[in-house]
From TrEMBL:
SUPFAM superfamilies associated with the record: PHP domain-like (SSF89550)
Organism: Sediminihaliea albiluteola
Domain of life: Bacteria
Gene Ontology molecular-function annotations: 5'-3' DNA exonuclease activity; 5'-3' RNA exonuclease activity
InterPro entries given in the database record: PHP_dom, PHP_domain, Pol/His_phosphatase_N, Pol/histidinol_Pase-like
Protein name, per record: PHP domain-containing protein
Residue span, Polymerase/histidinol phosphatase N-terminal domain: 1-66
SMART domains: POLIIIAc
Length: 284
């Protein structure tokens, strides 16, 4: 299974179809494409997936704010045509454009004009994001590598790190729940919150209708998994799991997660069914 992946519809390297084909090659039985703030990738392969040997679940990864921190919430198995979901997706698309304009304005002040036009051209039909600004900077020889673009200009705490345009956690969680989906806190340890602040995040998330947390996200240590297992147990959260696959890298995880549900915990996938009615076994 794998309930956290990205395609070229956002910042992944593989097209949605290539991503599905690789999932089949890896014998993944249940799968979600969770592109950033868009379901375009999922929609482009929803019909084709019916002829494949896997169950495709609708998915998205929403960007939001909580207590001054940018947090990601994964939505799974929701009705992508629901009015709340459509309105939310439209709002995030505009937020990304507004954020892109702000990033471009900051880069212009640093001596890099026309960044917005360049990044939009790099993005094409994908959701506009910082990787597209990085690609444009590389193409224009403003930087020698993508890593340099993030290290100097676009990474956390740098001029291009613009957060203020994201909606609140409670809003995006409510969109997912209204559309009949399951809201999941993505990679909770990446936010580097204290134990007490993480539990406050979970409390606010649950109050908004959220119900699950990623027990596995990409490559992580056994200690990290143990921390998240305790969090799920103590806070009565269901568990999800995903590779957070974007592209083939030395350090990144490949598609697919093998996980036996720990005793006393519930998985998000035990009640999933795809658009053809195929159900996902609670034993996977």
């Amino acid at each position: 299974m794998d309930f956290h992946t990205h395609s070229t519809a956002s910042d992944g390297e593989l097209t949605p179809l290539a991503l599905l084909e690789r999932a089949c090659e890896r014998n993944i039985e249940c799968f979600a494409i969770t592109d950033h703030d868009t379901v375009a990738g999922y929609l482009s392969v929803r019909e084709a997936s019916q002829a494949m040997a896997l169950t495709l679940i609708s998915g998205v990864e929403f960007s939001c704010q909580w207590s001054g921190v940018t947090v990601h919430i994964v939505g799974l198995n929701m009705d992508v045509e629901h009015p709340a979901m459509r309105q939310g997706l439209d709002r995030l698309m505009q937020a990304r454009l507004d954020r892109g304009a702000k990033i471009a304005s900051r880069l212009h002040k640093l001596g890099f004009p026309a960044a917005l036009e360049g990044a939009v051209a790099e993005a094409g039909s994908s959701q506009l994001g910082r990787p597209h600004f990085a690609s444009w900077m590389l193409q224009q020889a403003h930087v020698a590598t993508i890593s340099e673009a993030f290290d100097k200009y676009l990474g956390q705490g740098k001029p291009g790190d613009v957060k203020a345009f994201w909606p609140e956690l409670a809003e995006v969680t409510a969109w997912i729940v209204a559309a009949g989906g399951t809201a999941v806190i993505a990679h909770p340890l990446k936010y580097k919150l204290t134990r007490s602040k993480l539990r406050r995040l979970v409390a606010d998330f649950k109050m908004a209708g959220g119900s699950a947390v990623e027990l596995i996200n990409g490559r992580q240590t056994a200690d990290q998994t143990a921390v998240l297992r305790r969090l799920a147990q103590e806070c009565d959260l269901a568990i999800s799991a995903g590779s957070d696959f974007h592209r083939d890298t030395v350090y990144g995880a490949d598609l697919g997660v093998e996980l036996r549900v720990p005793e006393g915990l519930k998985s998000v996938w035990q009640d999933f069914a795809d658009s053809s009615g195929r159900r996902v076994s609670s034993q996977r």
